[in-house]
Prior knowledge:
Layout: H1 2-13, H2 15-20, E1 37-42, E2 48-49, E3 57-65, E4 68-69, E5 72-77, E6 82-93, E7 99-103, E8 105-110, E9 116-123, E10 126-127, E11 129-134, E12 140-147, E13 150-151, E14 153-158, E15 164-171, E16 174-175, E17 177-182, E18 188-195, E19 198-199, E20 201-206, E21 212-219, E22 222-223, E23 225-230, E24 236-243, E25 246-247, E26 249-254, E27 260-268, E28 274-282, E29 285-294, E30 297-301, H3 303-306, E31 308-312, E32 318-325, E33 328-336, E34 343-350, E35 353-361, E36 367-374, E37 377-378, E38 380-385, E39 391-398, E40 401-409, E41 415-422, E42 425-426, E43 428-433, E44 439-446, E45 449-457, E46 463-470, E47 473-474, E48 476-481, E49 487-494, E50 497-498, E51 500-505, E52 511-518, E53 521-523, E54 526-532, H4 544-557, E55 561-566, H5 571-585, E56 590-596, E57 599-602, E58 605-608, H6 618-624, E59 626-627, H7 628-635, E60 643-649, E61 680-684, H8 701-709, H9 717-732, E62 739-742
Parallel strand pairs: 54-55, 54-56, 56-60, 60-61
Antiparallel strand pairs: 1-2, 1-3, 3-4, 3-5, 5-6, 6-7, 6-8, 8-9, 9-10, 9-11, 11-12, 12-13, 12-14, 14-15, 15-16, 15-17, 17-18, 18-19, 18-20, 20-21, 21-22, 21-23, 23-24, 24-25, 24-26, 26-27, 27-28, 28-29, 29-30, 31-32, 32-33, 33-34, 34-35, 35-36, 36-37, 36-38, 38-39, 39-40, 40-41, 41-42, ...
Helix pairs in contact: 4-8, 8-9
Amino acid sequence: MKNILFTLALLVSFSSFSQVEIPVIDFASGDYPVGEKVKILYDKDWKPVTEIDSANFYRIINFKNKNIPSSRVVGFYITGEKQRSFYASYIGLTLSGKDSVSSNGPSVYYHKNGNKSLISNFFNNKKDGSEISYYESNKTESQSYFEDGLQQGEQINYYESGEVEFKATYVDDKEQGEMIGYYESGEVEFKKNYIDGLAQGEMIGYYESGEVEFKATYVDGLAQGEAIGYYESGEVKYKRNWVDDKKQGEEINYYESGQIDADILSGKTAKGGEVEYYNYYENGVYKGQKTFSIDGKKIFDNTNSLNTKEFNYPSGFKRSITEMKNEKENGLETGYHDFSDSVLHKLNWVDGKRQGDQIGYYESGEIQYRVNWVDNLRQGEQIDYYESGEVEYKITYVDGLAQGEQIGYYKSGEVKFKGNWVDDLQQGEQIDYYESGEVEYKNNYIDGLAQGEQIGYYESGEVEYKRNWVDDLQQGERISYYESGEVKYKANYIDDLIQGKVIHYFRNGEVDYTDLYLDGIKKERRIALVIGNAAYLKGPLENPVNDANLIAESLDKLDFEVFLHTDLATEDEMLDAIKDFGRKRENYEIGFVYYAGHGIQLNNENYLLPVNEEFEFEDDVEDNGVSMQRVLRYLESTRENQLNFIVLDACRDNPFESNWNKTRSLKGAGLAKTPPPTGSLIAFSTDHGQTAADGDGGNSLYSQALAEKILEENVSIEQVFKNVRTEVLRLSGDTQSPVEESKLTGDAFYLNKTNK
């Protein structure tokens, strides 16, 4: 049946032959119809054939005279896809029977998907000019240059992503100078030097971290002398010796701790025959020779006297002992727990293949699992057990691959989970259960990777959470619920790492607190109180509400949990907002307070004014205004890692004067100097004793500058306020100069740190 289908496919592929009636000719005959299109069939080695069944390629050629095509020659895969197009001046057969082509002009090779794979140019059958190769995706794979058939200049190879894979230089078709290889990340992978096409001198390989992975030496293209490999920590991984590109002498492999793992010796006899033998160590102490051979023929066998193969953990404790015979594992293998003489597993070997039952053990001696082997492949059911003896899970293997249903159990015997496997990959739905039998969660797998939505449930059956998987990585929003159904928290994942805000809610839907994450690492939590008072009974202002909205928008972009209030009417309303913020503030590392509106100083103390209070007497200010000292008290904390930023765009005139107007530049002395508590910074929109402009546009000069500068990346908070001062001075024509009082401690703090 298979042959019938293949024949039918070929008939379909060659249906175009019959449609245009292009004859298939015997190339070897030399009888070519001049002026007519013909087809020549070729096998995989480009030897002409006459039968379709033995053909891998074909060409369509129109001969203008014997052996000379009249124009471009086009080659095809036997299935019909274009393979190559070129211009030929001669077509003939080599002594070995292969088709020989003398080319002139451009030559293009193609992938089966129709995209170009290689573009070259020929002059008198020699490459001349640039040559570019391509991946099937049409991305550039390499670039090189030829002159008169010889490669010259730089060759660059690329990963499919477009990143450079390596660079090399050619002179007259021979590599010259340094070749550098790169990881796809752009980090150097290796460096190697060439003289006249032969590797010379030291070759160094690197880990992607930049640490040296190995060093080797080349003489005239052959590895010579000692080669040393390293762990990424810098510890020696192996030492080996090379003579004429072949290992010679002692090779030692090391654990990262520096302890010898196994010693391998190789060399040559006096007559040049290859010699190989192995030595084994236990805890760094030589234990004996295993075998000795020349040219693959055993001349010395010590396996019957040594009769075991032993391995150790880096700790020095025995890892396993295996019975040997005739250089192959034969008999019992016993594995051991590290730092213990207790048995880890037992299994049987026959002529180097695992056969029969393998039993694993807990350190206590209780059975951990049973699995069966047939010719080194797992076959049948594997059962894992709790240390107390109850079945933990079951799964079936067919020819070494997990197949069918996997079931996990609680110690009580109740089902814990069910999943399905196809060819060693988990497929379809997995369901996990509470011991009561209720569903705990459901998840879907495609080719071993979790995909799509996962829903977790409380034992009551109510939804506990929802999250999404893409290729076994959490992606997108995760929502967790109270058992009563209300949202408990929301988080976002990118490639299995929490990113951005995690918002925690009370059962009533109000925000409890917010956590902040960057690449899965919890960052300092941020909270902000923003107040904009403008609708005053006397002296209303135009911009504070706009200013508050603008600053709140910038702080939100900086991952602050923002509490925005506008036109707070009374002292009680302002104090309620401040007290609520103060209570929440305890759960956050960073606090930010912004106030825009009228503010005055009285007896060298600053007050923030609600919009509906009337202040006929000085006592009214003390009774109905909000003292800055009260605001600062709510920001005080015993926690050492808390920082506070207080911004007052409120340097206003004394409201006891009768001429209130729609500006913030009223007559008076502005605000008084206020020393900040430790770990805090207080910023004023203008200098002490001065007043600030409300602004002619939609925002004050200060809020406009602050909203912009606070978002700048990788600028310390102190520098942010310096930049704000510079901008306000510019905008005001040097008439308004913001100031700050700082008692920040520790390292420089950044609101918008990007690590770039």
